[in-house]
């Protein structure tokens, strides 16, 4: 929401006070486009196409450039993090996630600009994306050990999908959220993370294209 507010030229407080749920969701979509695009060093021209194709957010090249500048002004340490990530990858030939997963980057020092740039983006992207995926894997294993009859039918990146009785949606949502938001990361991996991980719930009694937000 904080990033989405930047996209639409408002403060976070203004965005949070909006009563229109559809508008708030639209703003959040704009935030997703910003976070998942610019966070990984996407340039304004690519960001215009990415935001439209992935999140349905339309903007001009000028707007994308202005937003990019505002984004890095709002989160100034991202540039330092980008630079440090690339330096680490160039020195060791790999990057490592907080949980210990290694992403090898053998072409990070290539003379080919295209290959080198791709590997530089991957060294920034991989530790975050693979960590989210690993959190999902850990959550699924804990859930299936704790609830052997729970039917997990989908695991996509950082999203778990379950079949549950339609009369017990809220019950199972609460159980699943409790596990996903309280993973034993310090006990298992020694990772004392600073951020709180929050799991969102959606449900549908028809198909996945008609999911409804569920607040538990």
Overview of the molecule:
The structure is a single chain. This protein has 216 residues and is mostly helical. It is 57% helix and 11% strand. It contains nine helices and six strands, in the order ααααααββαββααββ. The strands form three sheets. Strands 1-2 form a two-stranded antiparallel ribbon. Strands 3-4 form a two-stranded antiparallel sheet. α4 (44-55) crosses α5 (61-74) and α6 crosses α7 (113-146). The longest helix is centred in the middle third of the chain and has 34 residues, at 113-146.
- Count all strands and give the number: 6
Distance between the termini: 20 Å
**Derived structural class:** mainly alpha
Mean pLDDT score, rounded?
Answer: 90
- Shape category: globular
Order of secondary-structure elements: HHHHHHEEHEEHHEE
């Amino acid at each position: 929401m904080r990033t989405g507010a930047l996209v639409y030229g408002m403060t976070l407080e203004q965005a949070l006070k909006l009563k229109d749920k559809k508008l708030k969701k639209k703003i959040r979509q704009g935030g997703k486009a910003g976070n998942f695009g610019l966070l990984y060093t996407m340039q304004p021209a690519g960001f215009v196409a990415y935001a439209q194709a992935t999140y349905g957010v339309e903007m001009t090249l000028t707007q994308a450039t202005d937003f990019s500048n505002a984004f890095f002004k709002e989160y100034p340490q991202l540039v330092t993090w980008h630079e440090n990530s690339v330096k680490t990858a160039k020195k060791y030939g790999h990057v490592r996630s907080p949980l210990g997963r290694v992403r090898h980057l053998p072409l990070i020092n290539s003379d080919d600009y295209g290959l080198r740039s791709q590997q530089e983006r991957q060294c920034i992207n991989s530790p975050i994306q693979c960590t989210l995926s690993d959190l999902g894997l850990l959550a699924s294993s804990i859930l299936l050990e704790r609830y052997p009859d729970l039917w997990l039918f989908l695991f996509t990146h950082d999203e778990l999908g379950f079949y549950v009785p339609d009369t017990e949606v809220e019950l199972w949502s609460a159980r699943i959220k409790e596990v996903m938001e309280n993973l034993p990361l310090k006990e298992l991996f020694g990772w004392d993370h600073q951020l709180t991980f929050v799991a969102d719930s959606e449900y549908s009694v028809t198909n996945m294209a008609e999911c409804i937000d569920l607040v538990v």
